[in-house]
Amino acid sequence: MKRAYNIKIRPKLRLSEVQRLIEELRIIIPAPTRHTLIKMCEDGTFETLGNRPTNVGWLVFEDSFLRWAESMNGETDENRER
Question: Cα–Cα distance between 60 and 19 in angstroms, integer?
């Protein structure tokens, strides 16, 4: 049976996964505390699903996290095009 879905899904990461990736990829040593990561969700540093935690906690859009991680190297869209 073939099904066609016209749904665009933006992958989301739980805050615990964001913290794990920061530690594993050594983006910032030591990794920001959970409190700091929550503040980053609240201030818009990370694009999240809604303006508050969901029933499973904060959900950060993966592409938003990746943009932030690249920005920590001083990389921007303009720099990458050169």
Answer: 11
